[in-house]
Amino acid sequence: MAVWRKPWCRHVTAASLLVCILLHAAGVHARPANMSASKEKPPANKDENEILPPDHLNGVKMEMDGHLNKDFHQEVFLGKDMEEFDEDSEPRRNRKKLIDIFTKVDFNRDRSVSAKEMQRWIMEKTDEHFQEATMENKNSFRAVDPDGDGHVTWDEYRIKFLASKGFNEKEIAEKMKNNEDLKLDEETQEVLESLKDRWFQADNPPADQLLNEQEFLSFLHPEHSRGMLQYMVKEIVRDLDQDGDKKLTLSEFISLPVGTVENQQAQDIDDDWVRERKKEFEDVIDSNRDGIVTMEELEEYMDPMNEHNALNEARQMIAVADENQNHNLELDEILKYSEYFTGSKLMDYARNVHEEF
């Protein structure tokens, strides 16, 4: 597994729950295997945040550790406006923002949203995430390319990474120049080895062991490169594949160890985990319905700019709120199901809907 991933608390027992609490108190964000990756991250060094690949990729259906992205539909519906909808926001303000979004999605102004209109919107919002990542990458690349020559060597990156971890940058650079032992702890060495593998994967042919700005973007955000997306898929399959055939069966996809549970709440979480992944495997990822997910199928599923996926997602999103079963989405439906689309629940959602619209 890639070592920058967050650890899992796979055994939900009283003893292991205590361990998870202790890990949390120590600053390690443990996550049970049946939970999607949390967006909440512990405070980190700013330089480290700039140059390390992020744990979470907005607009990508699966996390880098193989967990489903539980906020995917909100990310592709709200785009860069996700943070504007939070639990503390004033409901009436959120309702007006949601009405404004509805009018933009409703491209032909017929006061209903079709699957094609939602597909178009999803592609636009996904592109917003892409543009945001590209802009952030410019700052990240400057952080590792202080001489501004437009290329970064692995050693240059390694020096900046270790400096972000608290090592003296000049001392590290001198030791590397003289081929001296850096005397790194085991965990830091493992992180570097995993990053090095990823670094050379991002080095486009002809390989020169240098990354330019676009290649560095692929290093941080594999969804921006077909080759790196394939690398990400291979990593996920390797982590989940139990028999080594480089394919995933349903049992492999849902059988991350969950251990013995000792209370009903934990059992419910485990059951939800299995149901969610089973549905996604059978209804979406396994496109030819043969009970096997190949790397090609998983790659298509995870490609954020796949228009066919966007259309399927649009249909699924509409189906969630389509109470009148007309295969379109009306304003009162999207307001009623606001929590699904935005993560924020509106009070009195139907109040003065038509007047405000």
Automatic annotation (TrEMBL):
Query: What InterPro entries is this protein classified in?
Result: CAB45_EFh (IPR027240), EF-hand-dom_pair (IPR011992), EF_Hand_1_Ca_BS (IPR018247), EF_hand_dom (IPR002048)
- Residue span of the signal peptide, if any? 1-30
Output one GO MF annotation: calcium ion binding
Instruction: Please give the chief subcellular localization of this protein.
Output: Golgi
Q: Name one Pfam family in it.
A: EF-hand_5
Coiled-coil annotation reads none
According to the entry, every stretch annotated as the EF-hand domain falls at 93-128, 132-167, 233-263, 273-308
| Similarity-based family | Belongs to the CREC family.
Instruction: Tell me what this protein is called.
Output: 45 kDa calcium-binding protein
Q: Which organism is it from?
A: Scophthalmus maximus
